[in-house]
Amino acid sequence: MTMWTVGSSAQSRLRRRLPWLTTLGRGLAMRCPFCGKSPAFDGYLHVRPICPGCGTPLGRVPCDDAPPYITLLVVLHVVVTGAVLTERASTMSSTMLLAIFLPLTAVLTLLLLRPIKGATLGILLKVGIVRPALSVSETNGADA
Ligand SMILES: [Zn+2]
Questions:
Q1: CA of 75 to the centre of ligand 1 (A)
Q2: Where are the chain's structural domains?
Q3: What is the pTM for the complete model shown?
Q4: 134 pLDDT band (50/70/90 cuts)?
């Protein structure tokens, strides 16, 4: 296993050689975008601090608000388009449309959020956006 450091020339070469589709595919499959061997998550949305397969610091990738934003962008385009087309093509009441499309929105969001977070993780790793490692005093919670 190689140690993963930001700016390491060997890691940078490996990261650059990895094709975009491979990185995105591994992320969408919720695997480590770098090696593809280990799961990237150890909970529904909690990213493993370090990949057990290759040592990539997955927990230092700052995904933040991007995955929920992208998920809502995709889901709401699908749901609103479906609701408008259904409303125009049928005589369904508004209550019935809400009864169909509100749960659909929730289900699609929950299904897509995790793979989109994995893909975001892959994109950020591919372009090299990783938070710096904490110093020993920061990890112990001591003040400097
Ligand atoms: Zn890995």
A1: 29
A2: 9-131
A3: 0.82
A4: confident
**Cα(97) to centroid(ligand 1), Å:** 44
Distance 40 CA to ligand 1 centre (A): 8
* Nearest Cα residue to 54 out of 9, 13, 14, 114: 14
Distance CA 54, CA 114 (A): 21
Gap from CA of 11 to ligand 1 centroid (Å): 12
Cα(49) to ligand 1 centroid in Å equals 11
pLDDT digits (tens, 9 = 90+) for 110-132: 999 999 999 999 999 998 888 88
C-alpha to C-alpha distance for 74 and 35, rounded to whole angstroms: 27
Distance 107 CA to ligand 1 centre (A): 29
| Residue 56 structure tokens | 């990539």
Distances (CA, A) of 75 to 18, 102, 122, 128, 144: 29, 11, 21, 28, 45
